[in-house]
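Hey,

Quick one before I head out. I ran the complex with magnesium ion overnight. Inputs first:
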Amino acid sequence: ALSVDMHLLTVDLDAIETLIYAIGRCDLELAGLASSAYVAGVSSLVEDEQELGAACIDMGGGTTGISIFLRKHMIYADCVRMGGEHVTADISMGLEMPASVAERIKTFHGGLVATGMDDREMIELGGETGDWEHDRRGISRANLIGIMRPRVEEILEEVRARLDAAGFDQLPGQRIVLTGGASQVPGLDVLAARILGQQVRLGRPLRVHGLPQAVTGPAFAATVGLALFAAHPQDEWWDFEIPADRYPARSLRRAARWFRENW
Ligand SMILES: Nc1ncnc2c1ncn2[C@@H]1O[C@H](COP(=O)(O)OP(=O)(O)OP(=O)(O)O)[C@@H](O)[C@H]1O
Ligand SMILES: [Mg+2]
């Protein structure tokens, strides 16, 4: 008897179409599609983790991707619609400053776990409003942490809920690997261990040697994973035609036909 194991990932058709459209507008041809949560796990989990059970949490700008691996396959993928940009927006609102300034303060001085020293460490906020009082203000690092922490907790609690729903606690291994640009905020490992459990580690892209220094950081986990994936294409993910009549295709029937014609 013939049998097949397949993993079906559903995606919002609108989102895919927008992506395909944008790539087409750049005069590029689309070779295939991959879930960023999946490829982040491909690059940042070690073999044992992929085999025994592990989750990759890819904390990006607008979203936080979740993928769970077992026996070298991804068995679950999801995402939380929050990421580092939300942290920046909270700082921007809380301290009444443009997002660009909030982003700089976050990356230079940000943190999640305050110590006594952070009460005394003052951060100059600067500003160019012309209002002298406003432009020369500063806050303590402890205050900055107080603004950032609730959002990161919210993201991690959402991740926890998704992992619980997926039955992650039933796996033989339960390592959780945090990666993505937004995983770089100091103290994340401590906070995540409190919310997600002790088996948390920070991850960055592995497996490709000789990468330029600039792309070895966690922000490149998904990109490096995509490169690995493209280097070992699986036919069914990679060789497909996008029919020209798909714009603006919204009906399920067309999606089903596309599926039949290409798989
Ligand atoms: N040193 C740092 N400390 C804290 N946050 C950082 C740091 N460096 C980058 N970030 C944050 O990482 C986020 C971007 O991460 P990343 O590059 O992984 O996103 P992306 O993959 O482009 O976005 P998405 O996955 O949402 O499409 C931004 O919100 C940025 O503020
Ligand atoms: Mg990303």
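Residues 60-63, 83-85, 88, 103, 106-107, 110, 180-182, 184-185, 219, 222 surround adenosine-5'-triphosphate (ligand 1) (CB under 6 Å).

Talk tomorrow,
K.
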